[in-house]
Amino acid sequence: MTHEVALAGQPDKTTRERFAEFLRIYTSLNTRIAYATDLGIPLDWVPGYAPPDPRRRRGRTRRTEPTGLEWLTWCLRNGFASFADIRVEHVERWLDELARAGYRDATRARMLSAVSAFYRKYLMREGLAEHNPAALVDRSAQHLNRATGTPSQTAMWSFQACRALLLAAYLLAEHRRDGHRDRAMVEVLIGTGIRAEELVGVNLADYHRPTPGGPAALRVHGKGAKDRRVALAAPVADAVDAYLAQRVPASAPALPGHSGRPGSEPLFVTSTSTRVHVTHVRAVLRRLCGIFAPAPGARPPRARWLADLLTGPDAAFIATHLAPLRETIHPHSARHSYATHAIERGADPRQVQRDLGHAALATTEGYLHDADNLANSAAHELSPALHRGWLATD
Predict the structure, then answer these.
(1) Which SUPFAM superfamilies does the protein's record reference (predicted)?
(2) Which of 87, 206, 298, 307 could serve as a FRET partner for 225 with CA atoms 20 to 30 Å apart?
(3) For the whole prediction, is pTM greater than 0.70?
């Protein structure tokens, strides 16, 4: 029995071609690999995938080795010739097997969401299934819903921690080779709440600031190939302009695992003129924490300029608020922080929802009111407040 049985009765395309069509919905290779892993699609079927170089040192990565309980493998093992034959009771039986095998509820919920997306975004649209059985699963009965009142697992940065990160990036911008780029990335991440994948996926043509010192906007390529425009407040746009003034044009194609559309010039590039990788975003945040709030026992800085910076008037404030984040800081916290602090400052929750491009927002809503969204964006209130007192925003 092979994977080819899964979409039997469709002679015009092979199963591999159909899975590739589904995965191409997602522009990020990392997202494609994640869906392929949960669904049980062989990784060599993933468009753009290249096996990792065994000679390169690799950090902690998500599991990609099959366990035999992935959705596709389970369907084949249970004799289903077509996904159209699957019913909700089959999905629930699969979830029960995952639970007995020791899969955590959060993992089962994620895998169920992958199955639901496969049906909703591909099988039903292609006429290969009439309904989405994953959508009929009682998530509460399967313990897949978080209890009401349970706090989010995503850590939120305090308002002062956001200020500290921005100030740290600002102070280092003139001293490091990629300082202006890193500062611009931190400004956009905190000032808009976009995802790290969206940040590195933006292109040079996506940035638009008609007049110097005026409002700016950035077109973001979100999940599910959904584009939206986000507003950049003046301090954020100024940081981007400072970076663009010394940016080296991209000259090399994107590497495997890098986001972005083929043939487009990335906004944020590395020292070798390639698109910045999503893992670099977290590395920048960790570096800011490590420099201003070093771990106990760390060597003192050798560079005189850095030693002076760490004894300057702002160093204590930065260290106080970045030290708690040093070991756990993650880019996604910027998204959570943006939403929380913007709403606390009186922003309309519906506008914040549009800013973040949440799935609950109707697909066309952001485009129908695009001009109003940019003018009323919470970014215009939040970003100047974060910079008030240490960076001129006039």
Answers:
(1) DNA breaking-rejoining enzymes (SSF56349)
(2) 87
(3) no
